[in-house]
Amino acid sequence: MRIEQDIKLDFKDVLIRPKRSTLTSRSEVDISRDYVFLHSQRTYHGIPIIAANMDTTGTFEMARALARHKLAVALHKHYDESDLLAYFAKPPAGGCTFYSMGITTPDFEKFQRVMEKANGTIENVCVDVANGYTKAFISFIHKLRRAFPAITIMAGNVVTGEMTEELILDGVDIVKVGIGPGSVCTTRKMSGVGYPQLSAIIECADAAHGLRGLICADGGCTSPGDLAKAFGAGADFVMLGGMLAGHDECASELVEVDGERKMRFYGMSSREAMNKYSGGVAGYRASEGKEVLLDYRGPVENTLQDILGGVRSACTYVGARKLKELSKRTTFVRVTQQLNEVFGAS
Predict the structure, then answer these.
(1) What is the pTM of this model?
(2) pLDDT value at residue 87
């Protein structure tokens, strides 16, 4: 057993310090990014925000809505092959779509069949597991990269620099970063495992960029300001679940509670999700997610305006004319103290 004494921070622990700016309007800020992925060598141009591959938010309808703003979606992995083929035959223009999968043999075989029938038109894949530190996960990445050398692979989740480096060296283009920060994730409560998300982004981005890889900050954002902090910390992409939930484009049940309309939202490791897709919680494991009822928020369009406007506003406060400049112009100010410091001072 050992204890790391270094301070680790979450989004709530910091603010971005303003700096002198020559920008006169948010409209002058370009929040799109251009990337060439390390392994696939494919190019990307768009606003690097991705709807999470949860069955409520990773929908075809969300993909079409976000594509109008050049945002991306990671589709959930429970779509039928026929539905996926119909979608990828004519994906929405302007956006970027990730095919999502787990690491089982049926997952791989399903992807092989879809790719063959789609004539290789799927360019981006999200390999999603709760624990990206297992040998089985690494072996699957090797297998996928060998079989499909030209696809862009986003994979995770991890929270440390050394594992980020290993994944990039093993063939991953975008490392997904985050264990336990999601609003409907209970991994930290159930297992005691996790890492404060802001520090995870900073450390994993530093490791990835040294190898010309990229990271996607997955989880923990509850406001547009959190996205600005994630990008300021070095995230290349940010994945959103709860912030995009509760909208018309989500595959969620609409219910009425005390005269108010609500929509169900749950984690993909929750009892609700496992009952739906796996016939219940297996006897050897526990649920690591929960279900909540969110206020019904109508079309996602208004929420997108708030999100994109907030990120643009952050850029104007620090003088970043382009999103790629935000991390270079970000200075975080700590606004909380950790418990050991409080106790030590008392």
Answers:
(1) 0.92
(2) 96
Does 57 qualify as catalytic in the annotation? no
- Token output for 150: 């030209």
- Rounded-to-integer distance, Cα 161 and Cα 224, Å: 26
How does 111-136 read in b/e, with b if 16+ C-beta sit within 10 Å? Answer: beebbeebeeebbbbbbbbbebeeee
Q: Distance between alpha carbon 156 and the CA centroid of its chain, in Å?
A: 10
Catalytic residue (one of 57, 152, 164, 187): 187
Measure Cα distances from 86 to 36, 60, 121, 122, 307 in Å.
28, 10, 12, 12, 30
Band of residue 60 on the pLDDT scale cut at 50, 70, 90? very high
Burial (Cβ within 10 Å: 0-12, 13-18, ≥19) of residue 165:
middle
| Residue from 56, 57, 164, 185 carrying the catalytic annotation | 185
126 catalytically annotated: no
Find out whether 333 and 17 touch, Cβ atoms under 8 Å: yes
Distance CA 206, CA 280 (A): 40
Helix axis angle, 135-147 relative to 105-117, nearest 10°? Answer: 20
Structure tokens at 258: 């005390």
Q: How confident is the model at residue 285, as a pLDDT?
A: 55
